[in-house]
Design a protein that fits this description.
Helices cover 48% and strands 18% of the residues. By secondary structure, the chain is of the alpha/beta class. It folds into 2 domains: 316 residues, Rossmann fold; 69 residues. A 5-stranded parallel β-sheet has the order 4-5-8-3-9, with helices on both faces. A 3-stranded mixed β-sheet has the order 2-1-10. Strands 13-15-14 form a 3-stranded antiparallel β-sheet. It is globular and about 75 Å long.
Amino acid sequence: MSWLNDYMTFTARQESPSIFHYWDAIATVAATLNRRVWLPRVSDGIERYRIFPGQIMVVLVAGAGRLRKSTSIQLPIDLLHDVGVRVLDGATPPEKLLAMLGGIGTHNKQGVIAILAKELSVFLNKQNYSTHMVNILTDLFDAPKRKEFPTIGRGDVWIQNACVTLLAATTPTDWAESIPVSALQRGFSSRIIFVHASKTERVEDLADTKPDPIRMVHAQQLRQNLVDNLKSFAKLTGPFDFTDAGRTWYKNWYANHAKSSDEESEGWSSRRHDHMLRVSLVLQVMKNQQMSIDVDCLERADKALKLVEEGLPEVFAKVGMNQDNNRGLDRIKTIFMRHGGSVDNFTLTEQCVKHFRSFAELNLCIVNLQKSKWIKQVSFEPLTGRQVYQWVAHTNGPLNQLKP
């Protein structure tokens, strides 16, 4: 049985959606491997750069107080502590992060760390952005061999062999309010895998009050297996390669991907292939600890990212909106859900206008929702002016597509 199967079995009764636990597992193994292993990216016989599994950044996204997204991150925190991975699981100023990873003058620090933030808005807030936290993270996410950061009063802090893994949780509103639109233009968000969920297939009633000794022993053994295997993963070192079939599959995939990619150099599509390869590295280690990526792991990584991409409109819908309109959009969505997905313009106005600064702003929001294909008009009565809208925004794909 693979490590991923063990992880999903261990978390099977925790009510966060499976897709969250799946990516928690990916991030946990990625942080354990950090930059001990890598995939050389070679062109014309020259190594251009390396892909490290520890570069993976995952952010779980769901509504406030729903789906236990923060709760699901606790197991990765505990496991990484158990295997000796350096973990930052609280807020910190940018200067302290730099001091943890590097130094001034001669030093032997390695810039390797796993940032696990149950509330991304606490770790990455506007105050931190004003002190260049986003710029620092953007540079570190590229895993530079050496990078210097100027500081006020302390000189230049330099970091060697950087590798920052991120696993965090947020809401669409908090994400939109934590990051200015200008940061998106620097490629910050395209380096992150945003995993959105709007529902869960799990129920954890916690009504039992008496532990089952047999199940307790089984759970303890399963958790110990997770730790032992992580320690085994941490011993892997050196470069990865493809199997022959894997190389052929990737060449064909990339040729098709290059044809369909947009021209935005800092967009998701420009980094999608690297995301897929990092996830493939992790899946391969979970599967059999082999240092050659096979077709199975490439296909599973591609499928996992396709499910992620279905949720991206929900993640970025509020970015660039003012705070009042963010809350108003939440209200509109709530009204649609309460009415079974269909609601008329009179009801929307009556129940939502107070959440906007004016009727014009509410009307503009409805127009933009139609343009974005979140809602569509299904009927119109000319005599009364009554319009009925239906909620049609994409939801997460079948969770069973994420095969362990």
